[in-house]
Amino acid sequence: xxxxxxxxxxxxxxxxxxxxxxxxxxxxxxxxxxxxxxxxxxxxxxxxxxxxxxxxxxxxxxxxxxxxxxxxxxxxxxxxxxxxxxxxxxxxxxxxxxxxxxxxxxxxxxxxxxxxxxxxxxxxxxxxxxxxxxxxxxxxxxxxxxxxxxxxxxxxxxxxxxxxxxxxxxxxxxxxxxxxxxxxxxxxxxxxxxxxxxxxxxxxxxxxxxxxxxxxxxxxxxxxxxxxxxxxxxxxxxxxxxxxxxxxxxxxxxxxxxxxxxxxxxxxxxxxxxxxxxxxxxxxxxxxxxxxxxxxxxxxxxxxxxxxxxxxxxxxxxxxxxxxxxxxxxxxxxxxxxxxxxxxxxxxxxxxxxxxxxxxxxxxx
Length: 365
Prior knowledge:
Layout: E1 2-4, E2 18-23, E3 40-41, E4 44-45, H1 46-55, E5 61-66, H2 70-77, E6 83-87, H3 94-99, E7 112-116, H4 124-137, E8 141-147, E9 156-159, E10 165-169, H5 176-179, E11 183-191, H6 193-200, H7 216-223, E12 228-232, H8 245-265, E13 269-270, E14 277-278, E15 283-284, E16 289-290, E17 295-297, E18 301-302, E19 307-308, E20 313-315, E21 318-319, E22 324-325, E23 330-332, E24 335-336, E25 341-342
Parallel strand pairs: 2-5, 2-7, 5-6, 8-12, 13-16, 14-17, 15-18, 16-19, 17-20, 18-21, 19-22, 20-23, 21-24, 22-25
Antiparallel strand pairs: 1-12, 3-4, 7-11, 8-11, 9-10
Helix pairs in contact: 6-7
């Protein structure tokens, strides 16, 4: 990752971080009764991807801020070890959401990492590197940023002449010159808890939305003589959040290709990785072959050298080594033994030799 700003010397990295995941929003643009963070990409809820990334931090505490549909979110997520729920009774903005977690973080000494619950593309490695950069730079607050060719409606990042973060301006509150800035806020923060909540006390809803913006803590800390660091992430696609169904589809396409590329590098053949759907819970062995349009979901397992035909749909299926599944087969919860066939006829792909029809007996006159 690219570090921006001047280093102030590393802080001791002995304190465990706490993580605050913001999952209270209604998601009006989704036009759905389902809470936004429970909408699924590649078979998993948006929130599940964020919590998975958080676990790589080895956090001492994970707080999930819930509000709209809180009971449904808690019921869906269950009670995983180390996760606590915090209620944001009124949805008054991101700053108010983090403030809702204040009591649960009383006396916490380590850094606090804040992530949006609707950003499934932020990778565990990026989160790890971001926290390491925050500790190395030594500022009381760090913000993850990205540079986009089309910054759209993201909040713009403004720096001072030394490269430190000066303020973040939300799109609705920005003038044309500010909207021309290509560096944007990724919505991921790392902060010293005392500095964070001390600045949040001063946040006021003086904006178009009449909300308490978490981004305002940047300007408040700077006005108090503190420095704020910005860390530019390695892949701008990771910051893509979900506001509507179109965003959801774009995230799914990105995750699908990320998963398929990882399997390609692990020795799996995809005849068309752009049309083949493999959920992250699926496991594949090397030298297996997936035909175009195949859909593999749930706890499906495919053994070494197995062949899955085009447009086959497998859910919780165990395919033994060297077995094959015919095109357009739809299988759920079955086991196909090694070398066996599932379907009326084999797919003439790699490793499978089709039978040739006998020639007809005709006399050429």
